Structure formats: structure tokens, C-alpha cells
Amino acid sequence: MSKMRDSDGETADDKDVGSLCGESDDPAPPADVPSESASGVTVCQVDEPRIQRAIREILLAVGEDPDREGLRETPARVARMYRELFGGLHEDPRRHLRKFFTEYCDEVVLVRDISFNSMCEHHMLPFMGKAHVAYLPDDRVIGLSKLARVVDEVARRPQVQERMTEQIANLLVEELHAKGVAVVIEAVHTCMTIRGVRKPGSVCVTSAMKGCFRNKSSTRAELMTLIYGDRR
């Protein structure tokens, strides 16, 4: 019997915006001062004053008055928001997969409907949805919440859905040595629903199949039934 669980995360011209990264529960050091993350990787802190200056410039550029009452604190709010939304940039999601248990399990383990929010790197607009993450263990089994934590940290950075799907799958393959890994992501992209083509209700679905899920059609079909049931 297969196991299935539902889930219950200088100036703007002087430096590339892509270098902004990091978040910590401890008081932040001065901007651009390197620090060491829990995984031992040297990262930089989010430069909130720089973000505030950039947001103020955007408000001026669109013809607004950043000093009026309703916008006066907006740059600071946006800076704090970016610190939160991009918090996964300096985290190593692998750490969640390195605490495992040696158990015999020869059936699919699936955590379905893991909600997430991410940011499309093309337009800096959010996309959100749910991820279905499955693996067929060899001899390593992990806590189900760890799969949700991996999804959350990979999502909290500038992303594209296709890369996010592959990143999650590859992490599980590399750390769990599973017989098979499958990741299916369904998401609504606001860069497609509120601008441009403006198609609300459209959903993007991506998948990454590794090992037995790619090589055996019967195992893949079992997974799709577990995820969607009669919804297909």
C-alpha cells in the first residue's frame, strides 16, 4: 500500500542588485559586511537602506510623491518584505535532508499540496501554488515536514517555476539516494494574470521525474493517481 500524506518556510548604480542576499534572526551587521550562515557559507546581509532608496526612486519615477502620508513608510515596508520573501537566498535547504532514518520502505511516499509563495524573477511579481513531492526510498526515510521546508526555502528567492521544480527534485536525489524522486508543481503567476496577456484562472504545471518515476510508466501512473485521483 502506498503512503500518502497531505501537508499541514553604495548606491543602486554601484552594485548589482543580484548580489543582495541574506537574513538573520540576529541584529544585522552593516550592509555588505559578510557573515557566515548556519551552513558555513559566507553570505551578505540584505541592504535594507539601499532597497528603501530604490523604492523611493521608483515612486518618484512613476509620478508619485514618496513624502505624502500614505507612502512615507512604504520604502521601509518594502525593504522588510524583500528580506522576508527572499530569505531563502542564503539558506541551504540540504540541511533539512541530512537527518534521516534507516527504514525499509518499498512504496511511494508522497506529501501532497504543499503550499508555497515565490517571486518570478522576470517581472518581480509573485507566483503561488502547491507542490507535490514524492520519493521511493532505498534505505533512507526523512520526516515529512522536511520536504515542506525544502519547498519553502527553494521558493523564497527570485525564481522561475521550471528551475524550482528541478532544484527540489535534484536535492532529494542527491541527499536521499532514493530509487526515484518526483516533483509536480502547480502555480498561478500574477505576471500572467494581472498584466500582459491577463489570463486569470490559468495554472502552470511543471514536473521533474527522476529514477523509477521516469523509467517506469506504472510507477509514474501510480503517482499521478495518488496526486490527482479522479481530478484528472
Q: Biggest sheet, open or closed, and with what strands and sense?
A: 6 strands, mixed
End-to-end CA span: 21 Å
Helical content class? 25-40%
Element order: H for helix, E for strand: EEEHHEEEEHEHEHEHH
Overall residue-averaged pLDDT value? 85
Overall body shape: elongated
Measured by DSSP, the beta-strand proportion falls in 25-35%
| Protein structure class | alpha+beta
Secondary structure layout plus pairing:
Elements: E1 3-6, E2 35-36, E3 42-43, H1 48-61, H2 74-85, E4 100-102, E5 109-120, E6 125-136, E7 140-142, H3 144-155, E8 158-159, H4 161-176, E9 180-189, H5 190-193, E10 204-211, H6 212-215, H7 217-228
Parallel strand pairs: 1-5, 5-8
Antiparallel strand pairs: 2-3, 4-7, 5-6, 6-9, 9-10
Identify the notable features of this structure and list them briefly.
232 residues, alpha+beta, six-stranded mixed β-sheet, two-stranded antiparallel sheet, 10 strands, 32% helix, elongated, disordered N terminus
Summarize the structure.
With 232 residues, the protein is an alpha+beta fold. Helices cover 32% and strands 25% of the residues.
